[in-house]
Amino acid sequence: MNPKGNGLGRSMRSFTQDDSVKNRKISSGTKKRILAFAAPYKKLLIFFFLMVILSAAIGAVNPLIFREIINKGILGQNANIVIQFALIIAGLAVVDAITSLIQRYFSSRIGEGLIYDMRTQVFAHIQKMPIAFYMRTQTGSLVSRLDNDVQGAQQAFTSVLSTVVGNVISVILVLIAMFILSWQLTLVSLLMLPLFVLPA
Q: Which residues contact 108 (CB under 8 A, 6 or more apart)?
């Protein structure tokens, strides 16, 4: 069982069940405050997203390497080319594994830092509230703000944002690789795509 998944599920449930935040749009001021939390980690975020882009690029370049193996190595009956490109694929696999480890490291550094900063600021704000605030506010709601909702915000920065960026970059690079391999088949695939998307 994935503890991160459970934590995200609990945070989302606690957040959506709170009547104070239902149907409320995020204001521009709130967005600026959210981005302000990420400002101290700007350099780490840049390196983190560079690793995400590198990982996506490695995944997109593999089909091009396999094309060279088939066309020049197997069909051309050249064992040296097959061996050379096989070593390149193995090297890329090692680089991809190292990249994934670096991504997890940066994700942990950024995530734990965001959690600490958010909880510290929320706790300091709660300490300044009058007694009347505590009389009308449920204890569970305060604990949820300090725990689950903060974790949900942290995961939005690391897990969700990295997934979105990685998927967008992957789609772009894969399309480029497809056009290089065969622009005709790529166009046919794109024309047929709505037939698979619309029923879903």
A: none
pLDDT, tens only, 123-150? 888 888 888 877 887 777 777 777 777 7
Q: What is the CATH number of domain 38-197?
A: 1.20.1560.10
Alpha carbon of residue 186 to chain centroid = 27
For 186-191, what is the mean pLDDT?
88
Query: Exposed (0-12), middle (13-18) or buried (19+): which is 183, by Cβ within 10 Å?
Result: exposed
Burial 34-46 (b: 16+ CB within 10 A, else e): eeebbeebeebbe
pLDDT tens per residue, range 63-86: 889 989 998 888 888 889 999 999
Q: DSSP secondary-structure letter at 129? A: S
